[in-house]
Every structure is written in structure tokens, then in C-alpha cells.
Batch of 2 targets.
Target 1
Amino acid sequence: MRDAPVLVLVLVAVLVVSCSAGRSGDTDADVDTDSDTDTDSDSDSDTDSDSDSDSDSDSDTDTDSDTDSDTDSDTDTDSDTDGSCGDGALDAGEECDDGDRDDATNGCDAGCQVNGACGNGTTEAWSDVGTEACDDGNAVDDGNGCDAACAIVGVCGNGVVEEWSDVGPEACDGGTGCSAACVVVGVCGNGRVEAWSDVGTEACDDGNAVADGNGCGAACDVVGVCGNGAVEAYSDVGAEECDDGGLDAGDGCDGVCAEEPGAPPVPGDLVLNEAHGDPNATDVNCDGIADSVDDEFLEVVNVSGRILDLGGVEYHDGFGLRYTFAAGTVVPVDGVVVLFGDVGADGFDSTGDCPALGWPGVQPLGAGGTIALNNTGDTVTFQDADAVVLFSEVLGAFPDGVSFTRSPDLDLGGFVRHDSVSALDYSPGARTDGTAF
């Protein structure tokens, strides 16, 4: 009968184990503890329970593995931040870093590698020659200040206008109108012909920026033309000596508006336009001395259309030869010779009452007191060295203090009193109204 209790206990233990199989691991753990306490015969069951516990331990290891993976991911992120192309810092493996990942035109591409090249026309911070100071589109030294290595070698003051120089792009280099910093400072109209000015290179500069008829235009360009009839200081042939409105030679003004050597006069080339034989102690010649002989005069005008040389031409009055013109006495076209009786030591004063004596084309001469016109009338004859008469005029009694003149001027119809056609008593070197021929 003693075996019965043992059997009951065994049955109870089996039931307990069977029930624990449907519960959680924690409950199994409790059962394991109880099983360990009860008997060694439960050893197999204990082993199973321990195996479950190991399984739980493996689950904890998986959790640790996940944690390690998270830690590794954080480490990778830190590495990208510390050494990335485009962060502006030159890191290992990078040839350049311009602070962005754009494939810009500064020579640093999106992969932080240098792709700039000297000679491509773009000044780049990174190129095959290093940092470029200039780039003119070629890798040669062609004299514009940017050399074959894309370095600036231009210098202001070397006489070459360079796009790249030590002062930047030059507007000029050397010459009038160019400053020490190779900047244009010249101005048209300042009276100086400048190589560099606000209108470019000046061909002329007459002191104003207007077209005033002297051949220099408002932009300091030459607009004068030889043959237009106006004697211009600036023309296509330079400063003109004459301009007769044509380009024919042999008429005193040649095809480049230069005066031709004077030709000897022939009959009809000269006209006696005014004569004064009774100055009545008036200072007609403006030499500061009133003299009844010296202040007599003959006004002769060149109407030939040619330059004349009066050398050897003789003046005769009713008495005979009075004066011979010296060699080289040249009279321009429409020029005037005023032959006075004589002139004082101080010469003719054209700044006072005789302005015409200083006009271009007017040639006052002193005859050494030999005009000697009779107050009661005289004959005036000009002839060449061969005694060919050029003109001869008979004049009546001279008015007291008043000259004889043609009216209108140069008209061959005869002579009248000067004061009958003008407010002036005489006008040596000028028309009756005081204006120029």
C-alpha cells in the first residue's frame, strides 16, 4: 500500500507540466524553479525549461544587434558632414572646392575636380595654370596684356593700349589727351590737337567745338575741302594758301590750294582803283607824320585771277619814270598794292585809322617820295620792263584832302570824288565803304 502515494505524486507532477506548456515563458520559468525544488526526476523537464530561457536570451542578443546598427548609421552621417565636395573646404581626393556642387564656369566642376583651361576665354579661379588673372581666349602672348599663362603683364605707360594691365583695361597709353593712369582726358574744343579725346583722335582743334567755316568741324574733324572757294586753315590738303573755287593750275592757285609763283602781268591784269594827289597835310598812311608828299598814294588791284609778280614793273607820271617795283613783289589774286609817296621810320600803323593796311592781300609800299602827283592833275601809267603799257589813266585836278575813286569799285567807267560815294574821304587798301576787296 505504500506505493499508492508515490503514484499520486507522479500524476500530479505530470499534470502540472502539461498545463505549463500552454502558458507564457514567465510562467515556465516559475515552473522550472518549482521543478528544480521538487525532485531530480524532473531533470528532463528542467532541461527543456532552460532551453526556453536560452531562446529568450537569443532574443535579447537580436535587440543588441539592432542597437549596434543604429550606432553605425549615426557614424556614417558624421563622416559625410566632415568631408563633403561642395562644403568649401579642400578635402582628400578633391582638386578644388568652390562651396557648391554646380558645374560652374570658374574651373571647378560638380565633382570638385579642376576643369578650367587657360585660353578658353573665361577667367577661372581653377585652371591648368592655377588661378588665372586674365583669359583672352588663347594661350599665347599676343600683346594685349594677357600672356600665354593667363597672367597680366600689361603696364600703363608702355605705349601699347592693353585690355589687361596694372591699371586695369586701358583706354589709351601715351600721347596727348591720355593721363598717367591711361585714362582719356582730352576734350575737343580746348585748342590742342589731341591723340585721345572725348571724340576720339582729333584731326584738328581750333579752340571751339563748332563748325565755324575754317575747315575744322564740331567733332574736331577736318571738313575743309580744297576747291570750294573758301581759304581754310584745315582742309583735305592741309592749311590752304589760297582757294579760287577750282583745281586748275596756272591761275595763281594750284590744285592743292597752294599759291603759284607770280606771273608777270599783262595788259588788263591791273586796275588803278583809287588815287590821292592832295592829302593836305593829313596823315593818310598812318605813319604818325602828316606829309603832303609821303601821304599821296595809288591803289592798284590785281583782277587777273592769277598771282602776279610786279618785279620790274614801272610807274610813270606825266613827267616820266617815278618808281620801279622790286623783284619778288608778289600780289595775290584780288590782292591790292598801295603805293604811298613814302613812309616814316615807324612804318605803317594798321592798328589805328588804317586797318586795311594790315589786311591779308594788302601790300603798302613806300616809293621814296617819288609819286609826285600834280595837284592840278596828272597821268598815271604802269608798264612792264619791256615798255608794254599795262594801264594808263588821266586824272584831273585832285580835290583838297579827298581822293579820286572808281564807283563802283573796279568799274572802268571813270573816277569820282571819294566823298561823293562814301562817308570816307579816302580808303587806301579797301573798297570805298571801307570793306575788303
Target 2
Amino acid sequence: MAGEIDYTGAVLSEAQIGIVNKTPGWSTLTIPAYNTIGFVINPHYYPWDIPQVREALCYVINRTEVAASWGLSLARPDYYPQPIVPETIATFPPDVRQFIIPCSYDPAKAVQILQSLGFYKKGGYWYTPNGTQLSLTVIAPAGWTDWDTMAQDAVEQLDAFGINAKLLTIDVGTFWSVVLPNAEYEALINGIANAPSYSTMWIWTNWPWWEEGRAISAGVSGSDVWPFQWPNGTCSPVIVPTTPNIPNGTIVWCVNSTFGYINLTNWQSFVIQYSPGKPEYDLALEVIFAWMHYFVPIVPLYDKYWPFEYSTSIMDPGWLFQGYVYDNYPGLLAVFLEYQPWGYGNQPFSVNTWGLFAPKGIVPPVAQAIANGSIWTKYPQYAAFLGIPTPDPMLQEAVASYFHIPYTPVTTTITTTTTTTTTTTSTTTPVTTTSTTTTTTTTTTTTTTAITTTAVSTVTTIATMTSTVTSTTTSTTTAVSTVTVTKTVISTALIAGIIIIVIVIAAVAALIALRRR
């Protein structure tokens, strides 16, 4: 590697990574690839068209054993048949997250499912109700040592369970250009998820069917309608507004209260109209995740971690992997991973143009912008893109500490103004008053005449307070404090700054008091 390459994403084993780390001027980072690898099962073959048989496979395989066959620092067990990775489940809204449901390692449950369907075991292998042996041939690209190694372990577990399973490795070009797209397989190994989180799930939803080829695909007659059931064992239809691409508006329809079908072509036409954060988008994810839980189009195996080998003379990515940054801001790491060089033509600018890395001893632009606060005060859209939309002084301190540079704390201030409005209502009440006048006239004959006069009084006005309306206006402002500190002197500088501020405030207060006198 001397002087010939600067960085690479070669899929090395744990032993090979150890050699790189001992090479002067080179280092490695083992990073999550946000990609689950699993077995794609072709449902056009009996009995793999039965959802419960596919479900049984999910319970047969011990994922920890699979991951350990390559190295637990490079692969983690993953039981989710949905296109997600365990690290980012929390980024999904609760209404979507309830449909992200894993299977488990439970061979006894697999036995129960198969027996309930009429399968039986003879001579150590399972047989279908029609008497044919239950077998499965898994195809993998030759030379992809991590895939091949872990696929072999999973196949051996299936065989030990009683499924006559075999692994067949073939030419890489044939695998990707012929076998996968044309669905010329009974089963093969492939990736499930290629989207780091909820906000980037659109990467997957734009066209997820590359994973199965023509075996399961929108727009392919005979491959776009499959059995459906909600996780609670029921079926209820999903109808959306009609469009030219969804003429009847039907995504899910039901045969009865427990069983129905999903139209993947209509689902695809629906989901691409919306973006993350929209309720329609969430609905689309709920439907497809529920279907994946029921139908298990891909049996998950492991969550991939990728060794990234680099020359320390051209980049220093270590700041992204500090505890606080790594644990709280996966979006920063996701941007790095989504545009890593090996995923986009091995172009050097792919990983550096985002301003995340620089040679050791040089502060990269994004790190500098975080430290001085300008990422939020001048470039808020970019901050949101990087997954750091809100100012965080602790993030600033972590970055500044790594590079030994000053940082300017940025705070968000919320100002609340309350206005009270009183409404007075005038009520007019007419009042009727009756008075009686008696006049007496004396003559030789005494006559008494009673005259009654009725008059309406003047209008009486009663003032009544009927309501009090309170309106609250909240405005958010971002202010950069004037205190600049570095990691090595943070305590002293902060205390000194507070003392100075207190003295200034006291002086101003005294001046105001003197003027009032």
C-alpha cells in the first residue's frame, strides 16, 4: 500500500485488520454499514410460497453464531425482516416502529409451524405434505468472503435442522447481471437495508425490488401481488386516493377478517408521492413493514460492519467516533457512510466534499463550523442535512476537545409572550312599569274615577364580562454567546466569564439606581 492508495473499503477479516493497524501511516475504523444481509427466498417455488414456511426459516438460524463465523466486530446478529438496522430503530415514529418486529432464534417454534402445516420429519430431514423432501439451494457471489463465510454457517444450521440446504457460489458478474435480476434462484444472499434511518428511508422506498429481482417486484405481473396480514392476525383494507397510477386506490384488500393481499405496484406508486414526515409516507411504511413481518420476503442474518482503511496522512475521521458524537448524532456518521468512496465509484471527493475530514492536524470545515457555531447561525439547512439541526454546546465541546481548538457555545432561546384580551358584552333589558292614578271629585254626588296608566321605563343596560382570551406567541431565536473557551481551560474561563458578567450587571444596576434618585 506504500504510496499507491490513500483509503479503501476493502472487506478485510479481523486478522487482516490487525495487520493494517500495525502498518506505519495506516489505520482502520470499523463502522456500521447500516445494511442487513439475509437470504432472499423465491416465493415462486413450492413450498416457499407459503408464508408460514418462510416464517419458520426465521426461527431456525442462530444469528450470533452466523456473525461470529466472520467476527463479531464486523457483523452483529440481526433478526429484523424489515429493511432497518437495530441501531436506528429509535429514529422511526412510534406509529411506524410498532410494525418493526423481529423474529428470534426458536427452533422449537419452527418445528411447531411446520408440523401444523402437515410437514413431517423422516431420516433426519423434513418432508412436505406431498412427500417431497424440503430442500433449499442458496446462491452467493464467489469471492465475497464475508458473505460466503456467513452464508455457509447459516446453510449448515438449516441442514442440521432438517432442511436439505446447500450453498452454491457462482461468478460475481453472473450473480448480479443474470441470476438476481431474472429471479433464477431458489434462494440467494443479498442486502436488505441500505438506508441508515427513518429520514433516509426514501433511499430504499424509491425502488426496493432490486433485492429480489423479478421474484418479488412492483410492475411485474405475477410478482406484485402477495398474501397479507397485519401483525395482530387480522386483515383490514388500505384504500388511498385514486391516481392515474392507482386507478382503484387499493393497496390492501381482504378475503376475510384474517387474510388478504397486497398490491406492490400500487404501494410503490403511492409511497413515491410522499416524503418522510408525511402521514401518507408513514402509512406506506406501516403497510410494507407489516407485510414483511408476515411474508418474510428476506430472512435476515446479520447487521454488517465495514472496515474502513485509510492513510493517516490524508484524513482523520476519528472525531466522528467519539462517544458523545457517535451516540447522539448518527446522522453525521450516516452522511459519511452514505457517501463513502466505495459506494460511489471510489471517487476521493465522495467522502471529503462534505467537509467532514481533513489530514491529521487540520480541522475539517464541518468540525470548525460546529465549534464556532456557524453551522447553525449561517448554514442551518446544512446542519439539518447532517442531522444536527439544533445547537448543542456539548457537541461543540466534544469536537473542540478532539481538535484542541476553541469553541463558541451556541444556545437557543425561546421567548414566550402572553397577551390577555377581555371582551365586554352589553345586554339590553326592557322593563315594564305599571302605575295607578286615582282622582276624586266632590259634588253633590260623590263620584270616584280610577285612571290606570301603563308606562314603559327607560332601557336598563347591564355590563357583563363574558370571556377572557389568552394568546401566546412563541418565537425562537439563536444567540451566540460571547464567551469563547477551550477544553483545557474551560472551567477557569467559564468561571471568569461569569464573574465579569456579574460585575457588569451589578454596575449597570447601580447606575440605574443612581439615575432614579
